[in-house]
Every structure is written in C-alpha cells, then in structure tokens.
C-alpha cells in the first residue's frame, strides 16, 4: 500500500485493531469481559465503546473507537489553526481511561487520533495527535521510570528530539492551571503532528499506540493485589476529583467531542465512578499522601 499520501482507511484499520488488542490484554488482567456498545452520530460517523465496570481490577475502564465527520469545525478544533475554520472535517481515534479499584494501582490514559480538514480546490490539512500519561495516587519511582522509558522507546526510532519535546508537552498540557498542580507524573503528548510526512508520522503513531500495553499492564499487575485500607481509598477518591476537573475544564478532546455533537456517554466514560471533594484539604506532613505532591506531582526527568 502506498502511504505517501494521507490514507484514512489505513489509519482506521490500525485503530480498530488496536482497540481490540488493548481490550484483550485488559480482560486478561481483570478476568471479566468488556461490554460492546456500537453507536452512530446523526451528523455523520459513529464508533464502538468498550466498557468494563465493577471488574475484579478495574472499577471502571473504557476503550473507545470513534470515526466522525462533519461540515463545520467546532471552535476547539480551529482555535490553534484559524486557516481551517469552515472546512469540512473527519476525525478518528482510540481513547482510553482506566481506573483501577486499588489505590496503589495508577489510573492511565492513552489516545491516538487522526484528523483531516478539507475544502474544495485546496489540499487537505491533516495531522496526528495523542499520547499517554500516568496518574498515580501513591507514587512508586520504579513505576514512573518504567512508564517513561516505554514512552521514550516508542519514539526513539523517529528522532532523538521527539521524546524530550513530547514529555515537556505532556507536562504542560496535563496541568490544572486553576490548582497550579500537575495531574500526574506525565508521559508523552503531541498534537497537530505531520512533520515526518504521512508514512512516518503514521508509523510513529502506531509505535505509541502499540507501546501502551507494555507501558501500563506490568504496573497494574504489580499493584492490583497490594493491601490497602480506608485511608488509602479515601485519598484515591479525593485525587480522582482532580481528574474530573481536568477533563471537564481543560481537556481539548473532551471539548471537541461535546462541541462537535459527539456522543456524551462515550465522551464521559473517562470519568471515575466514585469521587470525593473536600474544602481546602491538605495532606499530613511527612505522610505517603504528602509524598505524592512533593515527589511525583513536580515535573522531573524520570530517566536521569
């Protein structure tokens, strides 16, 4: 197949296969099956949401594929690219969020996506976006190092500069400005990416998507059976509140989905099932909870 020019069909084939492989790996960890919910969008397109709730390991996990299109770009998509305003568009991707029940097992997010905007008589504007990031509630250095090393290895074949750039982008993006606080320990993030041409940019996207299982599954296997009590569970639910705040206030993908008339249930399946908020709460100095803030929510080079 000639991939020197954008091929939405090739990307779609890869993405649907990626969703199936990730779901199979997670079902093996949890011992339960994901439900399948296929849906259609009135303006055009649809998707397949795969969801697990109240599993043995995952309190909630969602792995969604969507392929949607429309005639007018929503404001969130054209905010950084005003030249594409008014074009018809096509977007597809796989997005997942996993919320384990055990507070020592981290939440994980990953998405890979392809976007095209077209106008009659003009060359299409296309790009890839995505990445993955890790949100622990109790920090383990070896987990953070493994996750970041896997992200680095996924990008290494495509340029030495990509991992430092995409790591910094992730640190900057997954930051709650209203809290002046990172969401987690980061990972990699990129958007509007087409610098390598279609063939190599697509290959890079595949490397990132394929790397997720190796980056995350060993961590959840390592932590899922650790004993915990009410204190740890309470702190996990409190920190999940930050996850909700980020997704609803700052996340570009959530805004795009809602503004473009996407399916609300599928967009918001990333939300944790149980959350707590407290007024002006602070962790006890010297506690493991305080250690998350001082040792893990401060951006750092985990591979140094």
From TrEMBL:
Gene3D superfamilies, alphabetized: Coproporphyrinogen III oxidase, aerobic (3.40.1500.10)
SUPFAM superfamilies: Coproporphyrinogen III oxidase (SSF102886)
InterPro entries: Coprogen_oxidase_aer, Coprogen_oxidase_aer_sf, Coprogen_oxidase_CS
Localization (cell): Cytoplasm
Catalytic EC class: oxidoreductase
Residue(s) at site: Important for dimerization: 178
Record key words, sorted: Cytoplasm, Heme biosynthesis, Metal-binding, Oxidoreductase, Porphyrin biosynthesis
Protein residues bound to substrate: 95, 111-113, 261-263
Region (Important for dimerization): 243-278
GO MF entry, a single one: coproporphyrinogen oxidase activity
Coiled-coil regions listed in the entry: none
Catalysed conversion reaction: coproporphyrinogen III + O2 + 2 H(+) = protoporphyrinogen IX + 2 CO2 + 2 H2O
Names of the cofactor(s): a divalent metal cation
Reported function: Involved in the heme biosynthesis. Catalyzes the aerobic oxidative decarboxylation of propionate groups of rings A and B of coproporphyrinogen-III to yield the vinyl groups in protoporphyrinogen-IX.
Family indicated by similarity: Belongs to the aerobic coproporphyrinogen-III oxidase family.
Assembly behavior: Homodimer.
Name assigned to this protein: Oxygen-dependent coproporphyrinogen-III oxidase
Source organism of the structure: Keguizhuia sedimenti
Upper taxonomic lineage: Bacteria, Pseudomonadati, Pseudomonadota, Betaproteobacteria, Burkholderiales
């Amino acid at each position: 197949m000639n991939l020197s020019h954008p091929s939405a069909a090739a990307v779609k084939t890869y993405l649907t296969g990626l969703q199936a492989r990730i779901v199979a790996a997670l079902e093996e960890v949890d011992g339960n099956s994901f439900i399948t919910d296929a849906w259609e969008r009135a303006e055009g397109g649809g998707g397949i949401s795969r969801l697990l709730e109240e599993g043995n390991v995952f309190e909630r996990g969602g792995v969604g594929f969507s392929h949607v299109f429309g005639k007018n770009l929503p404001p969130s998509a054209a905010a950084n690219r005003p030249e594409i305003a008014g074009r018809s568009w096509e977007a597809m991707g796989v997005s997942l969020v996993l919320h384990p029940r055990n507070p020592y097992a981290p939440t994980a997010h990953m998405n890979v996506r392809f976007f095209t905007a077209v106008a009659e008589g003009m060359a299409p504007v296309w790009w890839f976006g995505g990445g993955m990031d890790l949100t622990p509630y109790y920090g383990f250095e070896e987990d953070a190092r493994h996750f970041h090393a896997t992200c680095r290895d996924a990008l290494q074949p495509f340029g030495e500069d990509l991992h430092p750039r995409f790591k910094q982008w992730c640190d900057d993006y997954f930051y709650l400005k209203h809290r002046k606080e990172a969401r987690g320990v980061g990972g990699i993030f990129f958007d509007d990416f087409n610098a390598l041409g279609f063939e190599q940019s697509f290959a890079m996207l595949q490397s990132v998507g394929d790397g997720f299982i190796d980056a995350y599954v060993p961590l959840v296997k390592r932590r899922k059976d650790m004993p915990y009590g009410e204190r740890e569970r309470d702190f996990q639910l409190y920190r999940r509140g930050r996850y909700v705040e980020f997704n609803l206030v700052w996340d570009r993908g959530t805004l795009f989905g809602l503004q473009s008339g996407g399916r609300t249930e599928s967009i918001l399946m990333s939300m944790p099932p149980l959350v707590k908020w407290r007024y002006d709460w602070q962790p006890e100095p010297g506690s493991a909870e305080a250690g998350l803030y001082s040792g893990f929510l401060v951006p750092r080079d985990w591979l140094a």
